[in-house]
Design goal:
Layout: H1 3-8, H2 19-29, E1 37-40, H3 47-59, E2 71-74, H4 77-81, H5 89-102, E3 107-112, H6 125-137, E4 141-146, H7 148-155, H8 159-162, E5 166-169, H9 175-193, H10 199-212, H11 220-255, H12 262-279, H13 282-287, H14 300-317, H15 327-338, H16 342-346, H17 349-354, H18 356-361, H19 368-385, E6 393-398, H20 405-417, E7 423-427, H21 434-437, H22 455-462, E8 467-471, H23 480-490, E9 492-494, E10 500-502, E11 507-512, H24 516-524, H25 531-538, H26 544-548, E12 552-555, H27 561-581, E13 585-588, H28 590-599, H29 610-628, E14 636-641, E15 647-653, E16 656-659
Helix pairs in contact: 9-10, 9-11, 10-11, 10-15, 11-12, 11-14, 11-15, 12-14, 27-28, 27-29
Protein name: ClpB protein
Domain AAA+ ATPase: 33-174, 391-560
InterPro entries: AAA+_ATPase, ATPase_AAA_core, Clp_ATPase_C, ClpA/B, ClpA/ClpB_AAA_lid, ClpA_ClpB, P-loop_NTPase, Sigma_54_int_dom_ATP-bd_1
Length: 660
């Protein structure tokens, strides 16, 4: 492929924001010996674009005299190896290509993914041997491009090949530089899709791509996001009206189905809702986001109301064609790709942070001191007062079992990331031995599991926006603290394969029962221990450099009986919601609540046994009523305590009462 010919035809444009790198590349190409460049960089930083920019400058005579009239050819490595049947055929083909290139005056050969010519696993390593003497003689000028990982693993060990190149490392551009890069090419995308993109949308696209697209770098990540969004909007303009009309027709048919049973109608409406979610673009689904939780809708009347409102909104939205890409469309595409709820991406982070303490109190009760301490530290971190690149915060949750440490981690995941599942949990009792602790950052070369990489790095790469919980950390082998120091200090961790895990968008939580008796004694004496006092106690078990890097040590005090009822009510609410979905109401007297709550409380285990009491004394008896047919849709279940102190059940079904 002749890149200079493409540039002269207008298919390749100038490069923006890489003046320094372009100058360095031209300087290297002007060397007397070994005028060969090896461009390294992560995926998406613009390695190929840098060569395209050189081709553009050559065509427009914006280069020194020694590059005037130069021609850049790109080697198609796929065609080079395709169909090769006998040994040495690839090498013969490459010799023929080099021979033809020599006939062209001032020819430059560009080889993208140049590491494939040296990779023994792909059987192409002989091609690299052909290039070495050609490069050393200086008869051939080559520009190669490869990723940082492939360079380190394949090219750098081959010193004979590596020393014939001068390495030019491309770093990810800053947001400001990336904005200029994207703005220079976005016009072509706008013309292709027939949509407008203003400067504010470009900046927002870069911000979203940098924050949520972790497998690619700027500017490519932002260009991809904008291109993907414009494609989705273009499809909406062409097909959305018909899709909404079809769904509206199906809903109208169901509204006219008077002969169907309620349960059958509800199931068909659920299927229609699933069809709506799968058929429509994420951009359209983002329009109909509401506070209604569709999992709780259990009647046809409620389903008709919800679906009619949704389709009315969609008809209004699709009434006019979209002419401009905005933040809403990009956020919807990001949400669909990453699984992060669109509300989290669009909503103001300041509001979420300021309301976080209230959100956490709804789930974690009786630990107001801990919650305030945690939220204050998070606010300090997110205000920009911490070191760039560090995690949002590194917190040590200290206290007895059953006081809400793990529950706080789940609540924090939901409050910060709108999803309780946005939590990566490690039970550190599984990492007691040194060899098992090595699994976090990967097995050494030659050992089983080396190719899989590190467990911790893999998980944070899959879920960069998460609460990372290291439970019962005192049980882990001492070598894991070296990993924690790196994560807390730099916010990054590399495994044995060189893959990088970025913790800058994560919260790190450590939990431990160490010092629980001391905390209990302090509480009984009416004292609130200071951070220094807690560090002194914990210093007997943990290294000082580990404790010094923590954002905050958060004490959890034993549960009191006054708080116990709140915890019981939170747990009982889950049972009530399950019954409500089946059209059954659950009522419980104050005496029954107190009796069951106290059954589930022991100072030693905290409130952890409350869930077991609800399972044994409430869930199991109710399941017998349901399976036995005594409790049906429309029924009411009343729980009280009789004179003997035992639970008494009243099952009401259509005026009939069954006492147990």
């Amino acid at each position: 492929m002749d890149k200079t010919a493409l540039a002269s035809e207008g298919h390749i444009g100038a490069i923006v924001g890489r003046d320094s790198e372009s100058r360095m590349m031209i300087e290297i190409l002007g060397r007397h010996s070994r005028p060969n460049v090896l461009i390294t960089g992560d995926s998406g930083v613009g390695k190929t674009a840098l060569v395209d920019g050189l081709a553009f400058d050559i065509v427009h005579q914006n280069v020194p005299s020694y590059l005037e009239g130069a021609v850049i050819f790109e080697l198609d490595t796929g065609s080079l190896v395709a169909g090769a049947t006998y040994k040495g055929e690839i090498e013969d083909r490459l010799k023929g290509i080099i021979k033809e290139i020599r006939r062209v005056n001032r020819a430059i050969l560009f080889i993208d993914d140049i590491h494939t010519l040296l990779d023994v696993k792909q059987g192409n390593s002989g091609a690299g041997g052909i290039l070495k003497p050609e490069l050393s003689r200086g008869d051939l000028t080559v520009i190669g491009a490869t990723s940082v990982d492939e360079y380190r693993k394949i090219i750098e060990p081959d010193q004979a090949f590596n020393r014939r190149f001068e390495v030019l490392a491309l770093q990810e551009p800053t947001v400001d530089v990336a904005a200029g890069m994207v703005a220079s090419v976005i016009g072509r995308y706008s013309d292709f899709h027939g949509l407008k993109v203003d400067h504010a949308s470009v900046i927002e696209g870069i911000r979203l791509a940098k924050r949520y697209v972790k497998d690619r770098k700027l500017p490519d990540a932002a260009i991809d996001l904008l291109d993907r969004t414009m494609s989705a909007v273009k499809m909406i303009n062409e097909t959305a009206v018909g899709d909404v009309a079809e769904l509206t027709g199906r809903l109208a048919e169901l509204e006219g189905s008077f002969d169907k049973a309620e349960e059958e109608l509800v199931n068909e409406l659920r299927l229609l809702h699933l069809s709506l979610q799968s058929k429509l673009s994420p951009v359209l689904l983002g329009v109909i986001i509401s506070e209604t939780d569709t999992k709780e809708i259990d009647s046809s009347e409620a389903w008709f109301k919800y679906l009619n409102q949704a389709l009315d909104t969609l008809r209004l939205f699709t009434g006019e064609k979209i002419s401009k890409v905005t933040t809403h469309e990009m956020a919807a595409i990001i949400s669909n790709k990453t699984g992060i709820p669109i509300g989290k991406i669009q909503s103001g982070e300041k509001e979420r942070l300021l309301n976080m303490e209230e959100l956490l109190r709804r789930r974690v009760v009786g630990q107001d001191t801990a919650l305030k301490s945690l939220v204050d530290a998070i606010l300090e971190s997110r205000s920009g007062m911490n070191k760039p690149g560090q995690p949002i915060g590194s917190f040590f949750l200290l206290g007895p079992t059953g006081t809400g440490k793990t529950e706080l981690a789940k609540a924090l995941a939901e409050a910060l990331f709108n999803d309780e599942k946005a939590m990566i949990r490690f039970d550190m009792s599984e990492f007691k031995e040194e060899h098992s602790a090595a699994l976090l950052y990967g097995a050494p070369p030659g050992y089983v599991g080396y190719e899989e990489g590190g467990m911790l790095v893999n998980k944070i790469r899959q879920q960069p926006y998460a609460v990372v919980l290291f439970d019962e950390i005192e049980k882990a082998h001492s070598s894991v603290y070296d990993i924690f120091l790196q994560v807390m200090d730099e916010g990054k961790l590399h495994d044995r394969l060189g893959k990088e895990g970025d913790f800058s968008n994560a919260i790190i939580l450590f939990t431990s029962n160490v010092g629980s008796q001391w905390l209990l004694k302090q509480k009984e004496e009416g004292k609130n221990p200071t951070t220094i006092q807690m560090m002194d106690v914990m210093g007997e078990y943990f290294r000082p450099e580990f404790l010094a890097r923590l954002s905050e040590i958060v004490p959890f005090y034993p549960i009191t009986e006054a708080v116990l009822m709140k915890i019981f009510d939170i747990q009982l609410k889950g049972v009530s919601e399950l019954l409500q979905r089946q059209g059954i109401e659950l009522k419980m007297s104050e005496d029954a609540r107190k009796m069951l709550a106290n059954k589930g409380f022991t100072p030693k285990y905290g409130a952890r046994q409350v869930a077991g009491v609800i399972r044994n004394y409430i869930r199991r008896p109710i399941s017998r009523f349901l399976i036995g047919g005594q409790l049906k849709r429309g029924g009411c279940l009343y729980v009280d305590v009789d004179a003997t102190g035992e639970l008494h059940w009243d099952v009401k079904v259509e005026e009939a009462v069954v006492a147990n």
